[in-house]
Amino acid sequence: MKNAMLSPATIKRFRIHDGARFKLASADPGDTAGLDLDKHTAKNMLRAGVKRLGELQERLYAQDRWGVLIIIQAMDTGGKDGIVEHVMSGVNPQGCDVYSFKAPSTQELDHDFLWRTSKCVPERGRIGIFNRSYYEETLIVRVHPEILARQKLPPELMGDDIWAQRFEDINGFERYLARNGIVTLKFFLHISKEEQRQRFLARIDEPAKRWKFSMGDVAERKLWDRYMEAYEDTIRNTATADAPWYVVPADHKWFARLVVAAAIVERMEKLDLQFPKVEDAALKEMLEARAALLAEDESAKKGGKRARKEGKGGKKKSARSNTL
After folding, report:
1. What is the pLDDT of residues 59-78, one digit of tens each?
2. pLDDT tens across 254-274, in order?
3. How far is CA 163 from CA 25, 205, 229, 311, in A?
4. Residue whose C-alpha is closest to residue 260's, from 190, 181, 171
């Protein structure tokens, strides 16, 4: 298994396409699917996944029929940035766009909740990555009702069923994307509360990581249980066949990266991406161009031989003249 990727069976255990019975408590953040890999082996496996992903992206771009939207959600320190850095390292930057959605601006708050993200959906032939996404609307906004109040919705539209309505809207949006050739993969990097504590401590104790630390993150940690409830409800209501969730154990960064890379590769391979075929008149024209290019090269070679021959003849004549 040194250079292999994770098996489809391993990926399947983390994929949720029908969330009706999903329980977050049953998902172990420390799970590694029974694998106990050393650092070197894990890196080799990830390298294989990254290489394959790069090959598939080239075909995706050339075929120009499908687009791929990758959504990454997690609690603070969950590893979102690391996934983007390590898993997407082999992807051509010209065919990939990364968007990080922070607190909404005044302009964004004046629009519908899908507006700021929907305008960033990737075009066909490209991969788009959302580091956080429209799912913030059913996560942080749900945990912090004051954010919802700033959206200035008419009071009659802010009833108890607003979250069910947003789930319905999101499902409709993702179904719409699927029907337009945009494949959506959603990853929840599931970290334990204890692992988050250790990573916060590392940010404080290691000078090179201190810039990442925020007191606001510690404040959000106090709302851990409410966030877990929001994540569970979100996944239960938005895991569909069109856009499944992958609940990825994230206590071990190496394993989370392997799962994400393998899941993306598995889904893209099912698209049967192929380089466009050049046939008939276009192929004939291309072969004619090839013949002309080869003839050009042959002509240059003959010209070079003639010039060298003439140059040698001139030198001999000059040499004879010097002896007279």
Report:
1. 999 999 999 999 999 999 99
2. 999 999 999 999 999 999 999
3. 21, 39, 13, 86
4. 190
Beta bridge partners of 130: 71, 99
The listed CATH number (3.40.50.300, 3.30.70.120, 3.30.420.10, 3.40.50.620) that belongs to domain 8-269: 3.40.50.300
The DSSP string of 117-179 is: HHTTPPPTT-EEEEES-GGGGGTHHHH-HHHHHTT---GGG-STTHHHHHHHHHHHHHHHHHH
Do 22 and 236 meet the contact criterion of CB atoms below 8 Å apart? yes
Structure confidence at residue 212 (pLDDT): 86
- Distance between CA 277 and CA 280 in Å, rounded? 10
d(CA 117, CA 177): 13
List, in sequence order, every residue forming a beta bridge with 129; answer none if it has no partner: 70, 98
Residue for token pair 């305008």: 119
| Sequence ranges of the domains in the chain | 8-269, 279-324
pTM above 0.90, yes or no: no
Q: Are 268 and 56 in contact (CB under 8 A)?
A: yes
Strand order in the sheet with 67-74: 15-16, 245-249, 182-190, 67-74, 127-131, 96-100
Q: Are 68 and 183 in contact (CB under 8 A)?
A: yes
Asked whether the beta carbons of 64 and 125 are under 8 A apart, the reply is: yes
